[in-house]
Amino acid sequence: MGTATRFWNWTAERYSRQSIADEASYQKKLAITQRYLTPDMHVVEFGCGTGSTAILHAPKVKTYAAIDVAEKMVEIGRRKAAEAGLSNLTFTVGTLEQAGAPDTSCDAILGLNILHLVPDLDLTIATVARMLKPGGHFFSSTICLRDLQGKLRLLGLATRVLPLLPTVSSFSVRELETRLERAGFAIEERFEQRPGVVFLVAVKR
To answer: Is residue 41 included in any domain, yes or no?
Structure first.
């Protein structure tokens, strides 16, 4: 079990009780995403945490597969899904790469607050591209460390030396967009919550 997995297992219960720091931005990202969702869609979310966003999106689609590396996060998500009566929402422990979904099997993939935490960003983006159908959408909300300002930037840099915290990778918004474009995506929508925190809607060409 890696450092990141241990951290997220340790913090799962506390994380599930935390209030959303910027409710207005969260609601805007939900609304943007749901404009694209239709009842016939097969959707995957990786880095799903305790499933709060999955619970809100799953009623809008045919199937919704939620994935997270932390077993305790997944346990909480499964409990929430059962309480909500969502039979089309499943939770799996692992990474997106480990999920092994067939090529071009997904209509939409969500990676929210996770791209800056994956060990190989290009591999993750390539996996998303492989799994999506042509014309499918990738929704990402990402901390871009090189564009952060003030205390947020210092906190992100601190994760690179503190052994108990997940490491935040360093790239800018433009660098992220370039990597997505290089993998065959076009950016359709961009919402910059604050400098260095960006929500992107990318379509697979």
So the answer is: yes
Domain assignment present for residue 19? The answer is no
Range of the domain at 194: 3-14+24-204
Residue 115 lies in a domain: yes
100-117 burial by CB neighbour count: b if 16+ within 10 A, else e? ebeeeebbbbbbbebbbb
Q: From first to last of its 205 residues, what are the pLDDT tens digits of the chain?
A: 466 788 889 888 988 889 898 999 999 999 999 999 999 999 999 999 999 999 999 999 999 999 999 999 999 999 999 999 999 999 999 999 998 889 999 999 999 999 999 999 999 999 999 999 999 999 999 999 999 987 655 555 555 555 556 778 999 999 999 999 999 999 999 999 999 999 999 999 9
> Alpha-carbon distance 196 to 170, whole Å?
11
Give the list of residues 6+ apart from residue 145 with CB closer than 8 angstroms, or none. 116, 153, 156, 157, 168, 169, 170, 171, 196
